[in-house]
Write a structure and sequence with these properties.
With 536 residues, this protein is mainly beta. The protein has helices at residues 2-23, 25-40, 44-53, 93-98, 139-149, 227-230, and strands at residues 122-124, 133-137, 156-159, 164-166, 170-173, 181-185, 188-190, 204-209, 212-217, 221-223, 273-278, 281-286, 289-291, 298-301, 304-309, 312-314, 325-328, 331-341, 347-349, 353-363, 369-374, 380-394, 398-405, 409-425, 427-435, 449-462, 467-470, 477-489, 500-502, 504-508, 520-521. The strands form 2 sheets. It has a 20-stranded parallel β-sheet that branches. An 11-stranded parallel β-sheet has the order 5-8-11-14-17-19-21-23-25-27-29. The structure holds 2-acetamido-2-deoxy-beta-D-glucopyranose (3 copies). Residues 56-86 have a biased composition (Basic residues). Its main location: secreted.
Length: 536
């Protein structure tokens, strides 16, 4: 009885699936892949059904996916197949820990594209049912591969080259994962562009949380396909353009409102960061490209020990709020050898950051490298020991900037900007303690204090204003050091201004071009002292 009923059910289901199969081959392969995934969750009959429907040979049902790359059901029309990865048997971990490997490897047939580290295990998303055709949702396969990689120290999760993986919002999370996992990204990961995938809005798309030693490396691409989100952000934030006075009234302040097709879905108003690391010790990102994020591209929050190098961020200069790299509550950070092109700050350093060293970075288009904005809604902000050196900026809104809101407390201390080459930057050097991204912000008595900011060898061309130091009346900026400043005007379509200073104290260690006479030499006669409660 039960048998017959289930047979009938199977027949009906089979007929439905047959129809689907005839209707669309693409859909059929998606179902087949999903069927394969179900098998891992022990839904035996469903997967058998889809297997028999698509005439697949029975596959190994074992749980060890280790390099069991199966090419049977990859119907590639346009993309070339990647070279099959040779099987690499890794010795048991105990052996590796105690003795050097005794058994010599067989003579190399052909080296794998990226030989796994000895003693590590690799988990290829293709072995977990990923399709990599840019259409089927591969989220489940990525989750399954991560679940396996998570259990083994120094394991490697592989996202192979040549494929495009459509992956929805996903979290690769500890805290119960082993340390030092490598996420080898050589393929392309794309974000869903339909509003349904994002629910009411999510803060991030791909996140790694609560891990010890996590490395994302490879030649791959993370593409947020954010244009649908950007269009909703019109008009743009005027605070960022407040120095611009067009020469000719007919000059357009904003790029024209993009034309939206009637068919476009409305995306949620909360826009996701493309790649986010949270609460981790030792996070490294290298080699990859992150592009067209709906919002920020790469974010570190509550991390200690971050290294980012030889990677690229790329999105259009007019894409709103698309920061390149965003640091928050994060300490001991090294960023170098990166090229950042985006529609907001190339690097943004927020509250709770210290010991940050940034060098050999190219920025532009974008809004420059910024500390802040800090102290919004009377909050306490603490930022210290930040070095930014050997940076080039091309066509950016600002060069190096510190921005704080009125009413905050805490401090920004120990900042060095050195050897910054600027090319047609609107305003190269900015301290703004009157930051306000809406129409009215009242002047208040408290402020995030700014002290100990050194600018040396800041050279190149500007198009609006060379220096803008606007500090608060109650907490003047102190110990602002300037040397070897050489900034030449290049008139464009805006009124040019001279250097501006308000309540800014420090030293001119060399003559500057243009002269920055407005800097008050020495210390303020009377400097308000923050209460213990407000000190960092
Ligand atoms: C202002 O721009 C308009 C249109 O681009 C142009 O015809 C006009 O000559 C410009 N005026 C000045 C003073 O540059
Ligand atoms: C400042 O940060 C650098 C790394 O950028 C670090 O090497 C140095 O020890 C820090 N200095 C202090 C006083 O913490
Ligand atoms: C706040 O104070 C600054 C400096 O004293 C002044 O230039 C500015 O106009 C004030 N803004 C408001 C809204 O009162």
């Amino acid at each position: 009885m039960i048998m017959r009923r289930s047979l009938n059910l199977r027949t009906i289901t089979m007929m439905i699936l047959m129809a689907v199969l005839v209707w669309s081959i693409t859909l059929e392969t998606c179902i087949a892949r999903r069927g394969r995934h179900w098998r891992h969750s022990h839904h035996q009959s469903s997967s058998d059904l889809s297997d028999s429907l698509s005439n697949k040979k029975p596959k190994s049902h074992g749980n060890n996916h280790h390099n069991s790359h199966n090419n049977n059901n990859h119907h590639h029309k346009s993309k070339p197949k990647p070279k099959p990865t040779p099987k690499v048997k890794t010795p048991p971990k105990a052996d590796h820990d105690n003795n050097p490997p005794v058994v010599s490897r067989p003579p190399k047939v052909q080296p794998p594209p990226l030989p796994p580290v000895k003693g590590s295990q690799v988990f290829n998303v293709m072995d977990f049912g990923a399709k990599g055709d840019g259409k089927c949702d591969d989220t489940k396969a990525f989750e399954a591969a991560w679940a396996s990689a998570c259990k083994i120290e120094a394991s490697m999760m592989i996202v192979p080259p040549e494929y495009i993986f459509l992956v929805g919002p996903i979290s690769f999370s500890g805290p119960n994962c082993q340390a030092n996992i490598v996420f080898q990204l050589d393929g392309t990961i794309i974000a869903p562009t339909d509003s349904k995938s994002w629910g009411k809005g999510l803060m991030w798309w791909i996140e790694f949380t609560k891990l010890i030693g996590i490395k994302v490396q490879g030649k791959g691409v993370i593409d947020g396909r954010g244009s649908g989100w950007w269009q909703q952000d019109y008009p743009f934030n005027d605070e960022e353009n407040k120095f611009l006075v067009p020469l000719n009234n007919s000059v357009q302040q904003h790029p024209p409102m993009p034309i939206r097709s009637e068919l476009d879905e409305r995306m949620p108003s909360i826009k996701p960061t493309a790649l986010r690391f949270y609460g981790s010790f030792g996070a490294e990102v290298t080699g990859i490209t992150i592009q067209n994020s709906p919002q920020c591209h790469l974010k570190f929050d509550n991390c200690v020990g971050v290294v980012v190098h030889d990677m690229v961020v790329s999105s259009p200069g007019d894409s709103p709020n698309t920061d390149g790299i965003h640091l928050q509550n994060t300490k001991d950070v090294l960023i170098h050898g990166t090229t950042l092109a985006c529609g907001d700050d190339c690097i943004s350093i927020q509250t709770g950051c210290s010991n940050v060293y940034i060098h050999n970075v190219n920025c532009g288009p974008g809004h420059g490298i910024s500390i802040g904005s800090l102290g919004k809604d009377s909050t306490k902000a603490c930022v210290s020991n930040i070095t930014v050196r050997d940076v080039t900026m091309h066509n950016t809104m600002n060069g190096v900037r510190i921005k704080t809101w009125q009413g905050g407390v805490g401090s920004v201390k120990g900042i060095l900007f050195s050897n910054i080459q600027l090319n047609e930057v609107q305003c190269p050097i900015v301290i703004d303690q009157f930051y306000c991204d809406h129409s009215k912000c009242k002047n208040q008595t408290s402020a995030v204090a700014v002290e100990g900011v050194t600018y040396e060898r800041i050279k190149g061309t500007y198009t609006v204003k060379p220096v803008h130091f606007a500090c608060s009346d109650n907490f003047p900026c102190v110990d602002v050091q300037l040397s070897s400043i050489e900034l030449k005007p290049v008139p464009e379509k805006y009124h040019m201004s001279d250097a501006f200073c308000w309540q800014t104290f420090g030293e001119l260690n060399t003559p500057t071009l243009p002269p920055i006479d407005c800097l008050q030499i020495g210390k303020p006669a009377r400097n308000r002292v923050q209460s213990d409660h407000d000190v960092c």
